[in-house]
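In this supplementary section we document a worked example of the pipeline. Step one takes a protein sequence of length 111 as its only input; no multiple sequence alignment statistics are reported here. Step two produces a three-dimensional model, which step three serialises into structure tokens for compact storage. The input and output of this example are shown verbatim.
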Amino acid sequence: MNNPINHVPSDLLKLPVVLTPRAWQEAVHIENPQDVTVISKRLGDVVLEAYRELHLQPDSDLIHFGLYRLLPDGNSSDRVWLDLKLDRIESPPGVFYLYISLKEEMHTSCP
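The serialised model returned by step three reads:
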């Protein structure tokens, strides 16, 4: 299978990735993880989906995407859809980063 991340321009892969606290809580955090690999996998899934969307929409500054994930409480084995958005932010001028938040969160970029 072709990995979409291989087709993302290398300059995009160099950008820092920031998650809002709410996005982290819903997409990455899990209560009482058995080990750190659970959190690592969840974080990797979020970042990989963001890069996949960048591959599909390389010129967009705002991208809506989502993924199926286990709920943070870990009480269910059913995966639930989570709507996210990806902003490509320039701050200060000439310095860019990727900002992942919940779809309904208002834009509040890093200082």
